[in-house]
Specification:
By secondary structure, the chain is α/β, with parallel strands linked by helices. The protein has 2 domains: about 325 residues, no CATH class; about 100 residues, no CATH class. Helices cover about 45% and strands about 15% of the residues. The chain contains 16 helices and 12 strands. The strands form 3 sheets. Strands 1, 2, 3, 5, 10, 11 and 12 form a 7-stranded mixed sheet that branches. The radius of gyration is 23 Å and the shape is globular.
């Protein structure tokens, strides 16, 4: 098994080496002005050679980011026919929609999506859109069709737009298409939706190092910021038990029923002692350590949580850690798969094997659901290098366009940091990363 995994690591490195950090098609770090740093994640649109197949959107994610990042992603994802998402913990039970509110819920999603498109257009230097034509023209390729479909509300009436106060405004006049009204005839205003925040209780099963880090840095944890309970969202991942089986070379068990979540962690599994013929492999031990740390059960996770709280006690500390995270995440795919031994092998398994589940789910949609015209794949950006290759080689897709979503914005001036000092720190970080990659090569 080690030999097979080593070959996979070498193959992965060969692909990753084709893109330097600043040329990554999936993640970028930019400076919109002298006092701001920003990490953006890509939404890459793939189109099929067979027009009967759905358009695919690779929606990159990082597990901690600005709250606005997850708001933007939710708005984008919710207008697609199907969302395939990662989650080794299993699916989150979908909440069936009230039939009486289905049209209103569709309207709310479309209004939020149009706001997302308008904001993206302004970030790219366009004036605030005031018409549906403006919104359509601000996008490229197949994304224009999604925008066009979102210009009518859940009752089939045109959504009205304006920018009278300088910001984008949108309104649905309800089922009757007339101002005012009650019940389903009531107006639905984007401004009202944005002013209303639904607080969801934190899932105790998602507690761990990532949530602690997010809170310490003034950011949000992905599982807290995204609502996975929509009916068109589907878990498309291996479970922890399946990953364990893959690492051990055992038959991979079938997936759990939709909505059933696992609470088993690898470090709870009974394994033979070292030295036995059936002793756990180094790769399995690396998996135990990784999942244990992320779950928050290990001493390392608790120690890191305390350290992050200390660092996050000052604005300067929070900003510098964000800078470090941005530059490290830009190179995460290459850094993780370039690790020698068990850790590098483990990261390849966690990327390549889990991507196979996505491809299998996509093949099932193509074969069995002809009415699905748009699929969003919501996964960690580190998966997309391999996943996009699989879509091209196995399913006949090709890249069409890219949309960038701000994931983490760092205001250096607010944090009291000198831009030149930060740039010097970033150069040191980049040299260290490049040296590590050179040593691994």
């Amino acid at each position: 098994m080690k030999r097979i995994l080593s070959i996979a690591v070498g193959s992965m490195l060969g692909v990753s080496a084709a893109f330097a950090a600043e040329d990554s098609p999936y993640l970028r770090v930019i400076s919109p002005d002298d006092s701001t740093m920003r990490m953006d994640l890509a939404v890459r649109t793939l189109v099929p050679s067979d027009a009967s197949r759905p358009i695919v959107h690779l929606v990159g994610a990082v597990h901690i980011g600005d709250p606005s990042y997850y708001t933007d992603l939710q708005a984008y994802l919710d207008v697609h026919d199907v969302v395939l998402y990662e989650g080794v913990g299993g699916a989150r039970p979908p909440v069936p929609e009230n039939e009486e509110r289905r049209a209103q819920r569709a309207t709310e999603r479309r209004l939020k999506f149009l706001k997302f498109v308008a904001d993206e257009a302004v970030r790219e230097g366009a004036p605030t859109p005031t018409t549906g034509h403006d919104l359509i023209e601000s996008q490229e390729g197949s994304t224009r069709t999604i925008v066009e479909n979102a210009l009518t509300d859940g009752w089939g009436n045109a959504i009205e737009m304006n920018s009278d106060d300088g910001s984008f405004q949108a309104i649905s006049l309800g089922a009757d298409g007339k101002p005012g009204g009650q019940g389903e005839n009531a107006d639905v205003l984007l401004s009202d939706l944005l002013a209303t925040k639904t607080d969801r209780p934190l899932d105790p099963a998602a507690a761990g190092l990532q949530r602690d880090m997010a809170h310490a840095l003034g950011l949000e944890f992905q599982l807290d910021g995204i609502d996975y309970t929509q009916e068109h969202w589907r878990n498309s991942d291996l479970s922890i038990e399946q990953i364990q089986a893959a690492l051990a070379g055992d038959p991979i068990p079938p997936r759990r029923p939709a909505g059933e979540r696992t609470t088993t962690t690898p470090d709870k599994r009974t394994k033979p002692a070292k030295g036995n013929a059936e002793a756990a492999s180094d790769v399995e031990e690396a998996a135990d350590a990784l999942f244990g740390a992320l779950s928050g059960d290990s001493f390392m996770a608790k120690a890191m949580g305390v350290l992050m709280k200390m660092v996050g006690a000052s604005k300067q500390g929070r900003a510098m850690v964000k800078v470090m995270l941005a530059d490290t995440l830009t190179n995460a795919d290459e850094l993780l798969t370039s690790q020698e031994g068990a850790l590098g092998e483990l990261m390849t398994v966690l990327t390549v094997d889990r991507n196979k589940a996505v491809i299998a789910d996509m093949q099932a949609i193509i074969a069995n659901e002809p009415d699905v015209r748009s699929v969003a794949i919501f996964y960690g950006a580190g998966h997309f290098m391999d996943l996009e290759i699989q879509f091209v080689e196995q399913l006949g897709y090709q890249w069409e366009s890219t949309l960038w979503v701000p994931a983490m914005t760092i205001d250096l001036e607010e944090a009291g940091l000198d831009a030149r000092q930060v740039e010097g720190f970033r150069k040191i970080m980049k040299r260290a990363i490049q040296q590590q990659l050179k040593n691994a090569g």
